[in-house]
Amino acid sequence: AMDRLASVRGSNTPAVIVVVYGNRAYEKSLMELDYWAIQQGFKVIAGATFIGEHSYSTEKYPVAARRPDERDLAVAADFGKQISDKIASATEPEKLYAVDVRKIRRPRQPFFPLFRFLRKVIALRKSGVPLPRTPWVEDESLCTHCGACAKMCPVSAIAKGDELNTDAERCIKCCACVKGCPQKARVYDTPFAVLLSQCFVKQKDPCTLV
Fold first, then answer.
1. Exposed/middle/buried for 139, CB within 10 Å: 0-12, 13-18, 19+?
2. Residue 46 pLDDT more than 90?
3. Around Cβ 199, how many Cβ atoms within 10 Å?
4. pTM of the full structure
């Protein structure tokens, strides 16, 4: 992602940075994005962390299913208003102050579900069970070769006309092809989906900083 953003530059330009994660954790991504923005000449005046349906989420194993929901969108709208007010109230560019994204409130994470998740992940890795490297077409009769998956793949891991195959070297397992396939022909059954669904049931809240 950072390679694709390398050509985006500012000149002390106000910027708002936002990360979206699937209800598990966003780790250090907001701070990494903040560092990138500053290096590229931007002044970060606001930041936020929002929850979206996890890439691995399915009907059988939901992970933050149907997020963002109405409440998330209301928080986003209020976030936008706060940013607008902040810009409007700054009498000159120098007074449009930057924020320290390290101060953003972290969502609460119950200890035992997290511990259970980490323990199961370790056990899964030690078991030697092969994990799927890419999404695949389970029932080839469902695929109409419409090319939708090839069009929506952000890393060109699927070629138009060869939709039954996925380049494992390129695939980042974002599952855009799975969620966007109009025929529901593509699947990505990973044991991590089961663990995420079982261990992160409690829904986290979006957090903002202006």
1. exposed
2. yes
3. 21
4. 0.88
CA dist., res. 17 & res. 23, Å (int): 18
Q: Which residue bears the tokens 């799975």?
A: 178
Q: Give the whole-angstrom CA distance, residue 56 versus residue 190.
A: 8
pLDDT for position 129: 86
Task: Specify whether the backbone of 84 is left (phi greater than 0), alpha (psi in -120 to 50) or beta.
Answer: alpha
DSSP state of 144: -
pLDDT grade, residue 158 (50/70/90)? very high
pLDDT digits (tens, 9 = 90+) for 64-102: 999 999 999 999 999 999 999 999 999 998 899 999 999
Triad 154, 155, 158: Cα angle to 5°:
95
SS3 of 36, please?
helix
Contact 135, 185 (CB under 8 A): no
**9-18: string of b/e by CB count within 10 Å (b at 16+)?**
eeeeebbbbe
